[in-house]
What does this fold into?
Amino acid sequence: MASMPSRTDALCIGLLLVVGTSLCMQVFASGKWGARPSTEDEFVYLFQAKTLAAGRLAYPSPPLPEFFEAAHILVTPRFAAKYLPGHAAVIAPFLAAGAPWLAPCFLLGATAAVLFAAGRVAGLSRWAALLAPILFLANTDVFPFFASYLSQSTSVAAVAAVAALAIAADRAPSPARIAALFAAIVFAGLVRPFAGAAALVTGAAVLYRLRHRAPLRTLAWSLPVLFAGALALGVTCKATTGSWTTAPWSLYARQYMPFDGPGVGTMRTLASERELPPHLRDLQIGFAQSRARHTFARLPTEAWKRMVLVARLLPSWLIFLALLGLAWTPIWPAAVFALAFFLLQLTFHFRAPIYYLEMTPWLYLSTAAGAELVARGVRRLRRPLALGATVIAGLAALWVGVGMFTELGPVITRASERAWPYARWEPAFAWLRERHALVFIRYPARWDGNAELTYNDPDLAHADLVLAIDEGERNAALLPYFPDRPAFVLDPVTLKAERIR
It folds into this structure.
């Protein structure tokens, strides 16, 4: 593609943006309960987005912090999410406009559009470049993760941008392209650290390749951007942990789960600074068991299982095309990212498809490049062979397409029937919210730690509802801090609310 897209390319980019956004809107927001958070991480990202929308990076530590402890939330020295702010920064303006759910929907469309642009920049024909976003949008193992408030929507979009900008900078370096590439790298790091680290490796590889083709003053445009990113990271750390060099997720691990985080081999046995509340102990035990199993002896087997997991993000018929696409050299920056990311992810003890979505931009671009190479090979055959090869390739493409869209149809049509895990508690919370209550949640023994109910708005003073952990007789110590609120104890099993003030 030329430095400026043609009208047809611009039309394709616009259509992909609209189609991807609309698809995500249908899946995410069409249910009875609308686009609600369904997992702990989603609640935390919304908490963080509300903090940013208020013009803050953190709030003061709540009174008697032990009452407000929740999974992935810091309650001391500040009231803040344990995550870096990149993803929440994308959600925040949409939240301020009253539609936070539009953020991941827009990101799905934007990622599809960027994948097409990356393919065109890499020299793929238009039909091949379109294959990458089609695979992305039609894969029910990928795009439904965008229909949530999880950070992978922003992370995958940032990685797609890194790939497109790295390809563009490698092919025609300029100060603007170098600066834009490293801005995308910094942003990826502020969303998910592993994505940022792998993107930084990619950026370094681009600079190394360009060292003889571009003047030093052009490559040096990466430095102010990296400095600004380091400053943003330091400011975030200082605001949330009180230290310029301690990240919020590091502090959270130190406070509650010192064994969690990157690492292979013997698990650290350091004592935690704080104890997780009893209703989250099962979550802590599960993390500890997962980390203890992540040993060097198991690493080869684990690496193979994770490679299989990544391969399943693509229809099995297309694995050959993805491998063949590695020969299309212009997309090498995406391959470098994927390799660096995979190796980094091996240091994390938990294995799940969601943790490998950042590899999909490379996977689908490589598949598109493989399809381009096959098409070029077919065109070189004599007419009878070329015709036969075209028919076979067309039937294979039809088979894959029908299979993918057969899976896609039910996901879209049943979106309105999707259950919301927290629906059983919402009527009780709505009733208590109307009363601007202070509610102590009396978690029973053996509570499922994945059903965390103690998530609050970051601004407790002005929240419609304040949720706290029931501490029995100690509840009286918290009451003076919220003198104007009626107080209740809620049993989350029976949904009975007992008024205590």
